């Protein structure tokens, strides 16, 4: 049985090593994406005007009036003093061509006191420019910047499949790491003084054993991040009922009543303030998310600066039908079925934010460890492959000599 597991581990490791190396290193960096982005690009984060901020809805109107080709889809409702207001936008449909306008940006930073646009960028563009670097690395982490072909997201699926292989290979690796009950201590040791191949082997085997639980968690949550709807949710729903998500909620896409007009953003926020009190949400509305294709809204509740969640299971969100303004769903941390709470925990676990700053430090270290495990695994494979090849060539040579005699 062990020889079979060795082969399985070898080929799963070789198949996933380069992907995990990239994901590990980028994951270690993007654990601090907001902080690094702010240091690299102060013009995108620091407002030029030291004055009270204008209402966010007014700033959004000014942005849309300045460039009628775009529509604001994500709008923070408050901002930290001295900071810009960062909005996400998407192209409107060109009435002449019936296709979206050609717009070269999807994120803007606005001086919150004046409405002046300080910077624009295409979040996730393939670019190493300082303004684009952190979004580039973030998207590289989970898609490798591979294209979407015919509606099929190649990168997201590929990294999700790598996560599945990694998850199963983690189990195989643990079994192989303990070949003998009596020699279990060796599986935790590092032969630092010997160096060379012995240390490389220990970094791979013992390094993986020490953090095996974290590796297994990262493998599973990476599947949840990339293949939540097609893979993870169906499995979880077999054990616990799941509430409809935002985009998969039929109540959000119901047809507009005859003769009605779509609800305004102001009405959505008024409804959200009322519903938040009923739901016991005591933090202010922090952001408005709009999906014009449905249309539907999401209202998130958090204090300025806590958009990325400092600790816990995330921020509360309420979802609204864009035709009627009716509350159509919610995602409130710690509430719902066991399956709902399990799914809520996936991103906080993957990012380490579930336990705040210590978790982010830990996840960053694990990302570096994943890269080291990937490289040492390849080094071990290459060395053994070279040894097998030399052994095979030597056997052929001996056989030739024997035949000649």
TrEMBL record:
The chain crosses the membrane at residues 12-32, 154-178, 209-227, 361-382. Coiled coil: none annotated. Pfam families: PepSY_TM (PF03929). Signal peptide: none annotated. This is Putative iron-regulated membrane protein Iron-uptake factor PiuB. Keywords: Membrane, Transmembrane, Transmembrane helix. It comes from the Bacteria. The keyword Ubl conjugation does not apply. InterPro entries: PepSY-ass_TM (IPR005625).
């Amino acid at each position: 049985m062990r020889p079979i597991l060795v082969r399985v581990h070898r080929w799963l490791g070789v198949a996933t090593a380069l992907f995990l190396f990239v994901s590990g290193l980028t994951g270690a960096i993007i654990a601090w994406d907001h902080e690094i982005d702010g240091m690299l690009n102060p013009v995108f984060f620091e407002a030029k005007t030291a004055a009270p901020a204008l209402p966010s809805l007014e700033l959004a109107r000014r942005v849309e009036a300045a460039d009628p080709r775009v529509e604001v889809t994500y709008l923070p409702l408050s901002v930290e003093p001295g900071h810009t207001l960062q909005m996400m936008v998407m192209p409107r449909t060109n009435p002449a061509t019936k296709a979206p306008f050609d717009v070269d940006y999807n994120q803007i930073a606005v001086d919150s006191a004046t409405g002046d646009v300080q910077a624009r960028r295409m979040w996730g563009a393939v670019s190493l420019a300082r303004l684009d670097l952190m979004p580039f690395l973030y998207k590289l982490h989970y898609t490798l910047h591979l294209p979407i072909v015919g509606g099929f997201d190649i990168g997201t699926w590929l990294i999700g499949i790598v996560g599945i292989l990694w998850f199963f290979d983690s189990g195989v690796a643990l079994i192989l790491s303990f070949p003998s009950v009596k020699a279990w201590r060796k599986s935790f040791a590092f032969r630092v003084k010997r160096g060379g191949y012995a240390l490389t082997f220990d970094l791979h085997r013992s390094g993986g054993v020490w953090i095996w639980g974290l590796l297994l968690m990262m493998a599973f949550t990476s599947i949840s991040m990339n293949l939540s709807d097609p893979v993870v949710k169906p499995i979880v729903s077999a054990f616990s009922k799941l509430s409809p998500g935002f985009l998969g909620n039929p109540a959000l896409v119901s047809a507009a009543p005859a003769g009605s007009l779509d609800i305004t953003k102001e009405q959505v926020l008024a409804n959200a303030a009322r519903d938040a009190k009923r739901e016991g949400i005591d933090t202010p509305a922090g952001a408005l998310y709009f999906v014009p294709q449905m249309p539907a809204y999401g209202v998130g509740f958090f204090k300025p600066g806590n958009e990325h969640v400092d600790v816990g299971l995330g921020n509360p969100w309420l979802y609204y039908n864009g035709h009627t303004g009716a509350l159509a769903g919610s995602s409130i941390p710690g509430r719902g079925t066991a399956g709902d709470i399990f799914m809520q925990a996936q991103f906080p676990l993957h990012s380490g934010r579930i336990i705040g700053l210590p978790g982010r430090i830990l996840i960053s270290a694990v990302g570096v460890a994943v890269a080291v495990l990937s490289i040492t695994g390849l080094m071990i494979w290459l060395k053994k492959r070279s040894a097998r090849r030399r052994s095979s060539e030597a056997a052929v040579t001996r056989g030739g000599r024997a035949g000649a005699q």
